[in-house]
Design goal:
About 20% of the residues lie in helices and about 30% in strands. This is Ecp2 effector protein domain-containing protein.
């Protein structure tokens, strides 16, 4: 498991996670400009997040600083967590990040073993709404 950001979080914080929307916003299955990734790789990524199998392991709740993006990849799948706020940090719980990835995979599966991915919003412990995006590893966050 690779992560583009290694961050030290505050172990005493507890996330107040909520899904910002009831359903993931899936990318169009017929859009040839968006590459597909293996849903199996996406599930492996979900499990890597659940087991915190990063090297080095991340501190959870995960600190995402203002104006920063974190990227996690496994095989052909990439998950991105973006804090677009320029003035405030927030924390996301490990299980909350895993659940967001799972929701995207469940809702955006093309039923052929591949997915174009999608996004869902989560709310951090400070009330900031962040995007979690799952997509092909060839695409930047």
């Amino acid at each position: 498991m690779r992560s583009s950001v290694y961050v030290q979080g505050a172990a005493a914080f507890f996330s107040l996670f909520t899904l910002g929307s009831a359903a993931a916003d899936c990318y169009a299955h017929d859009d040839a400009s968006i590459p597909s990734f293996s849903v199996s790789d996406g599930r492996k990524l979900q499990n890597e997040i659940a087991g915190n199998k990063f090297d080095p392991q991340l501190d959870f709740p995960f600190l995402i600083e203002a104006s920063h993006t974190a990227s996690f990849s496994m095989g052909s799948a990439r998950a991105c967590l973006a804090n677009t706020y320029s003035w405030q940090n927030t924390h996301i719980d490990q299980n909350d990040l895993r659940f967001a990835v799972q929701s995207i995979l469940d809702e955006c599966d093309r039923n052929d073993g591949t997915s174009k991915g999608g996004k869902i919003q989560v709310t951090g412990d400070t009330g900031l709404v962040l995007d979690v995006v799952v997509k092909d590893v060839a695409l930047e966050c």
